[in-house]
Each structure stands twice: as C-alpha cells, then as structure tokens.
Write a structure and sequence with these properties.
about 40% helix; eight-stranded antiparallel sheet; about 475 residues; five-stranded antiparallel sheet; disordered N terminus; flavoprotein; Alpha-Beta Plaits; catalytic activity; Uridine Diphospho-n-acetylenolpyruvylglucosamine Reductase, domain 3; alpha+beta; Uridine Diphospho-n-acetylenolpyruvylglucosamine Reductase, domain 2
C-alpha cells in the first residue's frame, strides 16, 4: 500500500517557492515583511500599488537564472524591477499577491571599460549616473541623460528603450546598446555581450529584448557604446512666437550645427510660468513673454570659441529674419545648468500643482506644430480652461503633452471626470498624425488597452506570437505591453 503524500509535496505552494528562493540566494535577499517590501510595490508616480509573495534580490546573473527556474517549477509570475522610476507601471506587480518582484539592484558591477572599442560593460542594476561617471573618469562620454539618472538603472533604461535629452545626436537606449546578457523565461542565460558594431549572423535578438519591458526575459548585463568627451558644450535659450517658428528654427540650427546639435528642447510659456510659480528661485529667462521657448545645446569637439562663434552666426540670422524673438547664451557652466534646471523642473512643478493627465507621445517632427494646434483646440473645446503643459524633445519628435486642471479646480475630480475623454482626444490625434502613444516611457500596464486599440491586428498578432514563442507559460511580467 502506497504512502500518501502531503498536499504541499503534491502541489507546491507559494510558501514552498519562497523557501526555495531563500535556499537559492540567501534568506537576507528574499523580502516578505511588509515594511521591507513596501518600497518595491508602488510605482514612482504613486498610481499603482500591488502585492507580492516576495521581493527577490539576486546578486548575479546565475542567481537570476536560478530564480527563474524556480518560478517555472512553481508557476510563479515574475516582475523585473530596476530603480522603480518608471512612469507607466511596468515594474509594479498586480494586486493578487501571487507574483514575485525580481529587484536587480544588487547586479551593480561595471564589468569592463574598453576605451579602444569605446564600450562599457555593465550589469543591469548599475545606476545611470554611475555609468556616466565611470565613462567620464575614463575620458569618455556616455550620453544617455534623464531626469531620474541618479536612481534609474541601465536595465530599466534598456527595458523601456529610454530616450532622454540627447537622442537627437546619440540615439536612444537601443542605439547605445551593442550587446546583452539575458536570462530567458526558461532560466537559461544568453550571453550576447559582444561589443560589435557589425554582426550579421541571424536574428537581432538584442533589439527584441530592448524595449520589451521584461516580458520576454530579464536583462542582466549590457555592452553600451561610449563616445569621445566633447571639448566644449554651449547652451542657449531662444524665445519664439509659435511651434511653427520652433520647427523652422530647428531646421536653421541643423543647417548651421549639423551633428554638433545635441539637444533641442521645446517648452511652452505656461511650462516655465508654472516652474516659476512653484520654484520661485528659477526665474523666467526673458523680460518679455514668448509663446514657446527652445533650449538648445551644442557639443563641440574643437573648442568653446568655435561653438560660440557658430551660435552667434546662427542666432544672428534667426533674430534678423524674425524667426527668433529673443535669445540668450549661457556664459558659464552654472548658467548652463540653470537653463537645464528650468527644463527639468517642469515635471516637478506639475506634481506640485496637483494631479494631471500625462501623455508621452511622438509624432513626425514635421507634424509637431500642427499636432499641438489641433489637439490644443480639441481639448479646449472639451474642457474649457484646461491648462496645457507641453514640453519635450522636439529634435526627435517626442512631446510630453500633459493636461493640468483649470485654475482653481479640483485636480482629483478633473482626473476622474476627464481622463478617459482627454486620452481619447490625444491618442486619436496622435494616430491621425502617424505617431506613437508611447515615445520613451513604455506601455507598462498604463497603456496596454490603448495600444491594443490603435495597433493593427497584424501587428498585435505578431507581438503575441513572439511572446508565446519565448514565454509560453506567460510568467514574464504578465499584464504589461500585451494585455
């Protein structure tokens, strides 16, 4: 007569999974107490809060692989997380308590810097600012730059294909990545850490994982491109009458500066007025108001004198033609930093002003001005008094097109009443102009439904086929990117 097995032996429980994880990576790195896990369960904006059976903190790629194999055996979904600075809920678990968060913060080693190959090999948990610093110490530039660079990680940057302020010249995270190390949904390690500019030997697996938000596997390390340090950077602000003038100025700047043009940021007058309201130490940069303000930066490999001379000739033509209404060039590093502070404080000022409806969209550069005009008008007709906080990377077609409640209104009630309506207005306009409803923040769980609505059935079927082929059990960050 056979001996009956216990229920836990026949059917592994969540407790069994957590115990096995403790054996695999050490009990100190498996967090289950509510006080220890809280920081991992809510997204940066405070929009999503989930639950987890555990927060797992592996220290090596092999430990990540071991955890994935345990998750497969116990059928536990995994939510990879970097610095938890995402804006679309892509690294937050659901409310079931049946998922586990895999925090990659302990994978924080810089494995190699190769100055002849101009590459840096880093683990997924290395903070972006640390990559920048290590590159600078080696006499090189790592150009990816974001407002959250002091806390976001390279793994998260790659998972969302982060953009930032220097995409115009250097490209986004995908363009800066040469190779990856990835733990597959089966718990195997793909070593694709090849620092090659040319590798024409089959499917481009690297690009498949970049931007996939951890739904196809977990990025554990990457080879990233480095660039020469510029000899000089020159920053300027220009006041213009309209987005159309900004587009014309962008064309003029491109003609003068070519590849030296590193940044070209567009900010509406209201953006900077809001910054001044919430942060009085950051003054409006001009004596008179201008409907649009452009922040532009040149990175020159020759000298500051050369860059300033180029700026002077460019702004002189722009002012004489009436394209630019006023302009000021930073005289030193402190003033340049002050110009960038204006730009970087816009999201902070919005948060201080109250809840708002955010959009991270992209449209072809040539359509930006028309998009702003048409969509502003549609929103004004739908919600009189709504305040538009429009800013972003005009040079690569990415706008943060945000809507603030009318002056004196209840932001929470505004969000509840108008979010669905205004999202539809904005996304319909983006679709009309052949754009994207997520330019650099990813889809996460925030935009899964909208993406499904606007993508073609063919595109969705292809994405689902890839997901099914690589992650047949659906354990990799479920509910993100694809519903």
């Amino acid at each position: 007569m056979s001996t009956p097995t216990s229920a836990s032996a026949a059917f592994p429980t969540m407790t069994d999974f957590v115990a096995a994880c403790r054996d695999a990576i050490g009990a100190a790195h498996v967090l289950t107490d509510a006080n220890d896990t809280a920081a991992y369960l809510t997204d940066w904006r405070g929009r999503y809060t989930g639950a987890a059976c555990a927060v797992l903190r592996p220290g090596t790629s092999h430990e990540v692989a071991a955890l994935v194999r345990l998750a497969v055996a116990h059928r536990v979904p995994l939510v990879p997380q970097g610095g938890n600075t995402g804006l679309a809920g892509g690294a937050t678990p659901d409310a079931s308590g049946k998922q586990a968060v895999v925090s990659l913060g302990r994978l924080n080693r810089v494995r190699e810097i190769d100055t002849h190959n101009n590459t840096i090999t880093v683990e997924a948990g290395v903070v972006l600012a640390e990559v920048q610093t290590r590159a600078r110490d080696a006499g090189r530039l790592f150009p990816l730059s974001l407002a959250a660079e002091g806390s976001c990680t390279i793994g998260g940057n790659l998972a969302t294909n982060a953009g930032g302020t220097a995409v115009l010249r250097y490209g986004n995270a995908r363009e800066l990545c040469l190779g990856l190390e990835v733990v597959t949904p089966q718990g195997e390690i793909w070593d694709g850490l090849r620092g090659l500019r040319k590798d024409n030997t089959g499917y481009d697996l690297r690009d498949l994982y970049v931007g996939a938000e951890g739904t196809l596997g977990i990025i554990t390390a990457a080879v990233m491109k480095l660039h020469p340090l510029p000899a000089a950077r020159v920053t300027a602000l220009a006041g213009l009458a309209s987005p159309h003038a900004a587009l014309d100025f962008f064309a003029l700047a491109g003609r003068y500066a070519g590849p030296l043009l590193t940044g070209f940021e567009l900010m509406s007058d209201f953006c900077l007025r809001l910054v001044g309201k919430r942060f009085p130490q950051l003054r409006y940069p001009f004596d008179a108001s201008h409907a649009q303000i452009v922040l532009l930066e040149l990175s020159d490999s020759e000298s500051e004198e050369h860059a300033r001379g180029l700026f002077e000739r460019m702004t002189e033509e722009a002012l004489e033609s009436g394209l630019v209404e006023d302009a000021v060039v930073a005289e030193n590093l402190a003033q340049s930093r002050a110009f960038w502070d204006l730009r970087e404080h816009i999201p902070l000022a919005q948060a201080e002003e109250g809840l708002n409806i955010k959009h991270d969209i992209a449209v072809p550069i040539s359509r930006i001005a028309t998009f702003i005009e048409e969509t502003d008008a549609a929103i004004a007709a739908s919600v009189p008094g709504a305040r538009m906080v429009t800013f972003g990377h005009l040079g690569d077609g990415n706008l943060h097109y945000n809507v603030q409640a009318p002056e004196g209104g209840d932001p929470k009630a505004f969000l509840s009443q108008y979010q669905e309506t205004l999202n539809r207005i904005v996304y319909d306009s983006v679709h009309k102009h052949h754009g994207s409803l997520s330019a650099e923040h990813g889809l996460g769980q925030l935009k899964v439904g909208a993406a499904a609505h606007y993508k073609s059935p063919v595109e969705l079927a292809l994405m689902r086929a890839v997901k099914s082929a690589l992650d047949p059990l659906g354990l990799m960050n479920p509910g993100k990117v694809l519903g």
